[in-house]
Sequence to fold (351 residues):
Amino acid sequence: MNHYSFGSSGSPKPFLAYPRGADFFYLESGTTRRVRKPKNSPFLPIKKLKSFGTRIQYYSKLHPLLVFVISLSLGLTIIIILSLYESHYRMMSSYQKPDVSSNNYPFPKLQNLVMVAGHSVYTSSSCGKVDKEDSWFLESYQKNPGQAATFVRHIQEGVDIAAKDDAALLMFSGGETRKDAGPRSEAQSYWSVAESEGWFGKEENVRWRTLTEEHARDSFENLLFSVCRFRELTGTYPYNITVVSYDFKEERFAHLHRSALGFPESRFFYLGTPASSTSKEAALKGEALVRVQFQGDPYGCQGSLYRKKLNRDPFHRSIPYPNGCPEIEGLFRYCGAAPYPGSLPWASKTS
Fold:
C-alpha cells in the first residue's frame, strides 16, 4: 500500500469533492475552468409560458372534464367582474357634477332674487288651517298666539314682491331642521302654504317662477345658499336681492350677512314684518345675542353658531353646494372673522 503525505512537494494533491470557489477539475484533462453564471435571457418568460401551456395540454388529456369545469368557472368569474365594473361605472357616471357651463337653464331671463327665510315646518294634513299654531311644528320659544300668522305673512309678502317684478325669482329657503317634524323642509312647507292659498290671487304670474332651497340651517345659509341656487337655475348671479323676514332681523341680514357676502349695499333690499305681540320682547333679546355671535363669527363656521347649525341637520342631509356655483366655491370654504378676501362675481358689477 502506498502512503501519501499531503502537503509535501511532489506528492499528489487530494481529490476535492466540491469545487473550491468557482474552480473545479475536469477529470479527463486535469485542468480547471471557471463556472459561468447563468444570464437572464429575454426569452425566459416565453419559455416559461410554453412550459405552462405544455402542462395545461398534459392535464387536459389526463383530466379533460376537470380542466373544462375550471376553465368555465374562470370565464364566468371574469364575466361577472366585468359586469359589476360596468354597472359601477354607469352608476358613477350618473352622479357626475352638473355641467354648470351649459346654457340650458330653466330660468335664464330672471335677474333678481326674492328670498323668504323659513322659520318653521308646516305639519298639518289640512291646508285650511295655515294660520293656526297647531298646524306648524314650533319650538318652545315659538309657541305664542299669532306666531303662525307671521309665517303666512312672510309668504304673502314674498309673493307680492315677486308679482311686481317680472324679472324676479321667488325663493323659499329652509332645510329639514326639526327631527320631530319628520323629513319635511321649511322651504317646501312655505311653497305648500302658498299653493293652498292660491298664491294670494297671483298664481299665474308667480307660481311658475317660485322655487325652493331646502338645505339652509341658519340665516346666513338662507342667503348664501339661495344665491347659489339662483345661479343653478338662471346661469347667472342675482343683480338685486330682496330678503323677507322679521323686522328685528334687518341688522343681521342687511348688514352682517350682506357684508359677509360682499354684496353691494345699493342692490340689497330688506322687507321686515313684526313678530307677534306676545313674542316681541323675547325675540329682541334673542336677536341681540345672535347678532353678537355673527359679529365675531360672520360665516357661522365655528363655536356656538356652528354647533347650532349641526343640531338643525337631524337627518344629515348632504349639501350639494357649491357644485352649482363654482365661481364662489372659495366663499363656501372660507372661515374667518375678517371678510372673505377672494374675488366675487357681483363685485365687478355696477353697484
In short: Confidence is low (pLDDT under 50) at residues 1-29, 91-96. The longest strand covers residues 240-246. The domain at 112-348 is CATH 3.40.50.620 (Rossmann fold).
